[in-house]
Amino acid sequence: MHEQMDPNAALDSIQQAYNQAAAALQNSSDLETAYQVATRLADNMRELADAAALIRAKSAQRIWESEQLSLSGLAAKIGVSKARADQLIKAARNSDQNDAA
Asked: How many whole angstroms separate alpha carbon 83 and alpha carbon 30?
């Protein structure tokens, strides 16, 4: 059985890990290695940001579907413009289509 972690606690853990990595890099005496690891850190953070954006889009889609909202209703509920709500739904759908392929 897999125990679920509180999402806020998980985010705190990510922030703490980033802070530790950043401090270690800034205090490193091996500048070339620090640069290489900082490059990996930046690449990994971009990948995480992209993955988080997709989770956000899928969450918006779930709200939209479960509450049977119009795009305007979804936009108002999640605090974005109607155009942004449409973009989120399209991103979630595109991901679902790519997952099915």
From this structure: 47
Q: What distance lies between CA 51 and its chain's CA centroid?
A: 5
Looking at residue 1, what is its pLDDT?
Answer: 53
Q: DSSP label at 27? A: T
Q: What is the pLDDT of residue 2?
A: 65
Domain with 82, as residue range(s), is: 41-101
Under 8 Å between Cβ of 34 and 25: yes
- Look at residue 83 and tell me if it is in a domain: yes
Helical (H) or strand (E) element with 50: helix 31-66
What total number of domains does the chain contain? 1
Q: Which pair of tokens denotes residue 5?
A: 């972690």
